[in-house]
Amino acid sequence: MDITSIVGIVAGFAFCIYGILGSGSIWNFVDIPSVLIVVGGTISSIIASFPFNVLKNVGKHLIIICSSKRYQPEPLLDIFTDFAQVARKDGLLALESRVAEVEEPFLKKSVMYVVDALDPEKIRSTLEQDIENTSQRHAQQIDMYIRGSAYAPAFGMIGTLIGLINMLKDMDLSSGSSASLGANMSVALVTTFYGCMLANLIFHPITSKLNIRDEEERLYKEIIVEGVLGIQEGDNPKMLRERLASTLSQKRQQMLLDSEDGGGSAKKARRGRKKK
Fold first, then answer.
1. Residues 171, 180: Cα–Cα separation, whole Å
2. CA-to-CA distance for 258 and 181, rounded, in angstroms?
3. What is the model's pLDDT at position 166?
């Protein structure tokens, strides 16, 4: 589980609360009408801006940002090395039995294209279009939080304007009511505070984490595309592995080399014994 988002958001609120307590009372920042204006207005605008098929995935997004990485590219190197060895030894059709063991839909579909002997350019264009379509769907989902990060401060300003208008309407200098000017002004400004907190501690972090998850999935699928095309071209398994590893960062490449030196085959053997 990736708890960085939870830790960051909770820590951000905790530091703000600590700062408030160090210079005043927390009750100075509690105003229910302001909460309704900012939170209610922001949510209402998001609902008005997006169809239900986008809105219904909010819960799924929260799970994604808190879960560990789903798309790990390193295991693909072992998979494609194995597939390449099978293809060179027994032919591409022999991969069909191996594909039955694959659970990941994109990987399964990609290898089946090779088994079916489709044209390499057709395979590349089809899979790349699939990746692009997926990223576009992700972008639409992420845009909901980008809009939210813009709506929240805007409704904070709206709340401030409402407070200022009411304050000026009720102000009567002849009766000495100006004594409450400071208190009324603080209530008017608290909505801007809520809007900034909502944007910077909720919407911006979610946007950033979803973008990272999208990039991870994109890299994962791009490695699959290169892997299946390398198998179709009859690449040497070791060369194919190195070619796919080159798409990773230098640090991750070094970790792969270290794991191989540490007995990657022994780990495979252990996994095989567990299956038995």
1. 9
2. 67
3. 79
